Amino acid sequence: MHDTLLLFGATGDLAQRYLFPSLLHLLRDRLLPASFRVVAIGRSEHDDDGFRTWLRERMDDGERGDNAALDDLLQRIVYHSIDLNDADAMKAALSRYADRAAVSYLSTPPDLFAPACLGLKAAGLLEDPSRLVLEKPIGHDLASARAINATLRASLDESRIFRIDHYLGKAPVQNLLALRFGNTLLEAVWERRWIESVDIIVAETAGVDGREGYYAGYGALRDMVQNHMLQLLALIAMEPPSEIDADSIRDEKRKVLRALRPMTAADAARDSVRGRYGDGVVDGVAVKGFQHESDVGTFVALRAWIDNWRWSGVPFRLVTGKRMPARATEVVVSFRPVSHWLFDRPSAERAPPNRMRMRLQPQETIELGLMGSLAAPEWGATELQPMSLDLTMSPTPKRRIAYERLMIDALKGDQTLFVRDDEVEAAWRWIDSVSDAWREAGVGTQPYPAGSWGPPAAAPFLPTTLSGNGKRK
Ligand code: BG6
Where does substrate bind (predicted)? Predict the structure, then answer.
């Protein structure tokens, strides 16, 4: 396992909230090598002790309580303040780490990927067997993603590049694969003949909160759909890989993403709704709306079509929004009605379809909606009732932060949960078709009050199973 982590963006929000806490947990659980150390790189001026004090103050209360582990982590950290646009400065400060098995982690905006790559190369930090980890977003559209990938490829082999989509590090997301390919019962009906529609929803109660600048350039489509939601879609829709290794899985995901039907301007009004939250109340707290001069969305609902044999004609509804009434990440698979209805009640039209509902966040639950006759039927009539089988794993296993798993895998060199260049580009190709279609058809954002499920026009895109019992994270 590699033992030197160069963490760029060390004073950023992501590092404070997830990356350092993940390292702390891994150290505490003795999952990192004894020689493990962190070279933290940021823009702010600190010496090593200054950075350690700064970081100690910013760790969650819970983490600060774990003093021994926190001390252990802090004493493994050294800090450098470096301008990533200055390749000479990077070389001067960082070449001393080049003789170790190093992993450079760019938790920076994408416009710094290319210059950072040049500086790392100059410092000898991209030589085999070193590795490079990149946070999303990889670019802003297909052209910029291609440019970033080309720069990376010129510096190191794809087998040493780790593009993060933190949803892939979440245990319930990995469970989607286990459910699909570990169960004859499911895989046998996992296709257009038996499945009527698939819903993927990622609802957040959080708002744009302090990330207005970034969000204005990205919006919900590029921030959430291009990566997390399309990865979920790809895992649900892909063909069985021949093996459970990184490239076999990524080959299949890429095929699904390539099969997404590009959205046209003619389809845009029927197959999408954009929204932006205004003032409202979430979790009993009054919150302000998202103001910006550009027409950027905080909510998007899309109907996606996968043009292949397995999924032809099956709508995949993707809905994500900020400032929703509840936090909920769910996949709902709705099956087709039985071919002939034998019972009196409820009528075939009113009987809810069999549904498999997999809630990934905030709690992992799995429910199967079936029909049964539980109550004593009236004389002469068989009355069916919907019933729900709870398939939730019990006891629920201890959950780790997604980044803990991803960090270990990057240090070990396992690419299975990281996104390959061609997947990123296939996803952007479809996203570009959506944003082009919006522009051509003039599809703008519609207002919705914070604390609601998006603009009224989005109602047909929302699964009827959606309930408001999610809790804020
Ligand atoms: C990030 C997005 O990638 O994912 C954020 O940039 C979003 O806007 C976050 O809030 C959601 O992640 P999670 O793990 O809280 O569902």
Answer: 166, 170, 204, 223, 322
